[in-house]
Amino acid sequence: MEPEKESARGLAQVEGYLLWNAEVEEARRHARRFADALPWLTTAQREEVERVYVTDRVAVSKEMLTRIAGRAVELRGEYTARYDRLRARCVAVSVLTVGTVGGGCAALTLISR
Predict the structure, then answer these.
(1) Close Cβ partners of 27 (under 8 Å, ≥ 6 residues apart)
(2) How far apart are CA 42 and CA 69, in angstroms?
(3) 16 φ/ψ angles, rounded to the nearest 5 degrees
(4) Residues 56-89: tens digit of each pLDDT
(5) How far apart are CA 35 and CA 26, in angstroms?
């Protein structure tokens, strides 16, 4: 693999790791706030509520990211197909234009003789 691609891939992995850790930490903060609203919980109950909350939030985040990643792949395919069709049309129009202009010039040359 090319060094530039390898570097870009490594940076994307680091970015993903940091974003995911930030999401997990955010879930923990929300879990603590949620447990704070339940002051009657014992320490063990509070820890269990926080653990369940974080587990649920992380699962929801994973599902969301999976859906987003799948949609991004679908969109990439759609846009690539559209780009390929547009490029083919542009090439066809260019070839047709060059042919028409060339034919017109040849016709004018023959007529003017």
Answers:
(1) 53, 54, 57, 58, 61
(2) 40
(3) -60, -45
(4) 999 999 999 999 999 999 999 999 999 999 999 9
(5) 14
